[in-house]
Amino acid sequence: MQPYELTLADAARRIRARELSPVELVDSVLDRIGTVDPHVGAYVAVTAEHARAAAREAEREAARGAFRGPLHGVPAGLKDLIDVAGSPTSASSRVREGHRAAADSTVAARLRAAGSVLVGKTHTHEFAYGLTTPQTGNAWDRGRVAGGSSGGSAVAVAAGAATFALGTDTGGSIRVPAALNGVVGLKPTYGLVPRHGVTSLSWSLDHVGPVTRTVEDAALVLGVLAGHDPRDPASLDLPALDHAAHLTEGEPDLTGVRVGVPRDYYFDHVDPEVEAAVRRGIAELAALGARLVDVDIPMTRYIQATQWGLMVPEATAYHEGTLRTVPDRYQADVRILLEAGELMGAGDYLRAQRSRTLMREEWARMQEEVDVIAAPSVPMTAVKADQTTVTWADGTAEAVSDAYVRLSAPANITGVPALSVPVGHDTAGMPIGMQLLGRPFGEQALLRVGHAYERTQSARSLAPVA
């Protein structure tokens, strides 16, 4: 096995045992980037020289026995909305030409302090305003969409071009590409991970979280990222938790865990192969001792309107200046959405806020009955790059972007944590994801269930990038 193939947890154990050098690991990942990135386009920039220097410093510290934690010497990719001091934050947009970040974002600073090594900035759909990341090809089939807007991060991890990566999630932008590329994506509870220094799409919906190969890896990264930062008005001051410490090492056992299975919404207009794979995953949870509980998803008719009613005006407000001064620098799809936001009145925005408040209250009541909810992450696997709509069995047509956001948006509106874990492939060989949704600050329950499930499966291999 090559070092780039290691999970974060395995790499951390080997570095700690002095069986693997951070230099060897980072060189292996950089070589892998050189091999696969010309095919998939995960990175907008690769910082090889800085990465090698940081790896050498991590190696010197390891030689002294000075380990900073499980991320020590481990290479990461960061979505190119996340500021790193002295580096461009392009947001994959010509609007940001010439930009360089003056300081680290909170999450970049925390990764740096934990000894992680930045190997590059990963592509996003322009300003995170889309669900496909058109610059990037799917790790399993480059002719298909990567998912978005954290498509570059998910593809890098799936292809072995990063040991882990960070993404952002406003309507599914971590979970969608994670599901489409066969990796793990975690959207934490709103306010758990600070967003200072991260370019905003919609401040009341934005989250930062990890994209990893395993649930254990996600827990390790979350332990570094979480924590209060007063520079983010939404950041919450909560006790620090070691999320990975709560993952059991013995036989997986979910006895006593109540898993909600939606009667409605999450299995409506879903590809039969996706539904079958997710229901097999749910059956596996039951086999591990979980008790399945049927639940009704509240206020489903208002989900799409509430998501767009919040996101569109907030995004337009953020871009107000550049939309007026350099509108020609935006891609057409993003510019149209931003201009549409100027047509939304204050009343529409207030109604969306009111709807969100009611939805949070109804979800809280529903979640009293269960510990987690299990459902599909996305309704279909990765479509061809030129496909714009999907037609369901009943003849209903839906835009691809609307379909991908449909099952992930509720967790953004309510702020609850959500985890996407791989549960197999369809007959075309494309990955399928199962989504676990928890109560606010219920990350430990999500990680426990996801970790137990994946330990019943054979080890996942990297995507077979040419």
From TrEMBL:
Top-level taxon of origin: Bacteria
Gene3D superfamilies the record matches: Amidase signature (AS) domain
Classification via InterPro entries: Amidase, Amidase_CS, Amidase_dom, AS_sf
Every Amidase domain range: 24-447
One Pfam entry name: Amidase
Record's protein name: Amidase
Species assigned in the record: Streptomyces varsoviensis
